[in-house]
Amino acid sequence: MEIRHLRLIKSIVEEGSITKAIDKLHLTQSALSHQLKEAEYQLGIKIFNRANKKLTLTKAGEKIYETANEILNKLAETQKEIKAMVYGEIGEIRISTECYSSYHWLPSVLKQFHLLYPNVELKIVMEATHYPLQKLLDDVLDVAIVSDPIKNENIRYIELFQDEMLMVVSENHHWSTKKYVLAEDFASEHLIIHSLPLETVTVHQFVLAPANVKPKKITPLPLTEASIEMVKADMGVMSMAKWSLQPYLKNNPNLKAIKIGKNGLKRKHYIAVSANKTYPEYFNHFIEFLQTEINLQWNI
Question: Which parts of the chain sit beneath pLDDT 50?
Answer without folding.
Answer: none
